[in-house]
Amino acid sequence: MATVSLPEARRTIVAVGRWLDSKGWAPATAGNYSMRLDDGSVAITVSGRHKGRLGEEDVMRVDMTGASLDGKKPSAETALHMAIYRDFPEAGAVLHSHSPQAVGLSRAFPEAIGWTLAQHEMLKVYPGIATHDLSRTLPIVDNSQDMAVIDAAMAPRLLDADALPAYLIRGHGLYGWGADMAEAERVIEATEWLIAAELAEIGFRNGSKA
Ligand SMILES: CSCCC(=O)C(=O)COP(=O)(O)O
Ligand SMILES: [Zn+2]
Predict the structure, then answer these.
(1) Torsion of the alpha carbons at 171, 114, 168 and 101, rounded to the nearest 10
(2) Domain tally for the chain?
(3) If I label 183, which of 2, 53, 92, 130 is the partner at 20 to 30 A Cα–Cα?
(4) Cβ neighbours for 146, distance < 8 A, ≥ 6 positions apart
């Protein structure tokens, strides 16, 4: 399991917020990011901040129950980050993006509980996948303001042997994680790219021009 110091986590999370905002995946105050710290706590973004304009003071500490350790208000979605750290001891960083493509796909197919990603070279970005010649399902869960409801719906599906380190919340956004921040960034970037490619393919099949 990768852990980092609080100063390193602060620098890394500020930088990742700028990167995600530059991609258009952190509009307004959307998104939240976290890293596992070397003292057993977790660094996470303060709630309600613009994630493309974070200062180091906008990254705070919570304990493994998600309780604030420094009096600041953690992300409204802290419980989803803690669920990933709880279920995946090797997870060192969690990212949450809000792209129009991911939200659009999840809303366009309101009955879908997952999206099949098959025969994509980009699948090789996910840890443990070495070929395009397979299929994996990106889980989709309905949105809720109660994080425990989302966690209860997702937790069993994430423990599946072939589960990707990512899932989509309908009408809301994408969660992805990795052993460290570099891996979490690759997971989010690859998953957002795969969603965009799938949407482009749907458009071509339906006759729209590029
Ligand atoms: C305008 S985004 C609504 C809240 C949300 O989905 C999000 O990702 C940001 O919430 P936070 O409390 O982490 O700032
Ligand atoms: Zn969100």
Answers:
(1) -60
(2) 1
(3) 53
(4) none
- CA pseudo-torsion sign 182, 102, 147, 138: negative
CATH number at 165 reads 3.40.225.10
- In-domain check, residue 210: no
Answer whether residue 93 is part of any domain: yes
Cα 78 to averaged position of ligand 2 atoms, centre (Å): 10
Task: Name the nearest CA neighbour of 118 among 141, 103, 101, 137.
Answer: 137
Interface predicted TM-score (ipTM): 0.99
Counting from 1 in the atom list of ligand 1, the atom nearest the Cα of 76 is 12
The residue whose two tokens read 């006759």 is 207
Is 118's C-beta closer than 6 angstroms to any atom of ligand 1? Answer: no
> Rounded CA gap, 185 and 35, in Å?
12
Which atom of ligand 1 has the smallest separation from the CA of 28? 1
Domain assignment of residue 157, given as a range: 6-205
| Residue 197 counted as domain residue | yes
- Tell me, using a 6 A CB cutoff, whether residue 47 lines ligand 1: yes
pLDDT tens sequence across 150-199: 999 999 999 999 999 999 999 999 999 999 999 999 999 999 999 999 99
Nearest CA to ligand 1 atom 13: 75
Question: In the block, which residue shows the tokens 């937790």?
Answer: 155
